[in-house]
Amino acid sequence: ILFILKKEIMQNKIIDLDFLIKKIKKNSLIQIYNSRENKKFANFLKKYFFKEFKAIKLFNKKIYFDYIKFGNTDIFDTLLISELMIFDFYFRKRKKYKNALDIGANIGLHSIILSKLGINVSSFEPDNKHFLILKKNIAKNKCKNIKTYKLAIWSKKKNLVFNRVINNTTGSHIDNLKENPYGKIIKVSVKSENINKVIEKIDLIKIDCEGSEKVIFKHIDLKKLEKVDCILEISDKSSRKIIWEKLKKSKLKIYSQKIGWMQSK
User: Fold this and answer.
1) Would residue 134 count as lying in a domain?
2) Which of 35, 113, 130, 167 satisfies CB 3.0 to 4.6 Å to 71 for a cystine?
3) Is the Cβ–Cβ distance between 58 and 113 less than 8 Å?
């Protein structure tokens, strides 16, 4: 791993994610969350990522983002090893999907990558500050096939209390969904949309919504879910239990990063 040089990762202020993905794919142990190899590689990447970048290169396409902090974290925390492997999945399966749903779109990285691969995207992000940056990034990258919605996804359409975590806005969440949220929190009102309404005519869903996944999966129509592929971050043990019980009733196959993307049974 250590033979990777700074100049190979970043040239002309462009971060070469294609180069990094190739290196990660050559070592399956790097892909296992919290393994020694995973931690070592992650620390190495943080050392060589710099604020002065102007774009990333992915699948030979340039994607433009400004450096941004989310409190104590920053944009490079959205470029972790697990994220890079998801980007690679998008590329390998790009011909399979026509319409994607990005739940918890944040500032738009996943939406823009999917868009660049020719996939139509509906992006949902309830945080107003993130949503404004999302819109800006879509415009900067000239993506014409992304529709944006300043909404949370929930069991039904309603007004919700949203906790904005000041020290890490990527961890902001719907009220009462996290047991011990840390640091200063600002509560704001957000609107939501029914999950079963938005998955019509969708063939890929990416979900990263800080605890709301337990509500989404508790109420999602299983017949509709079986028609799509889903990439999902599970935030806590209660979400894991609810989602596992739901998926056991379906015909869907489940693959977990914690066991090297092997099938869970």
Assistant:
1) yes
2) 167
3) yes
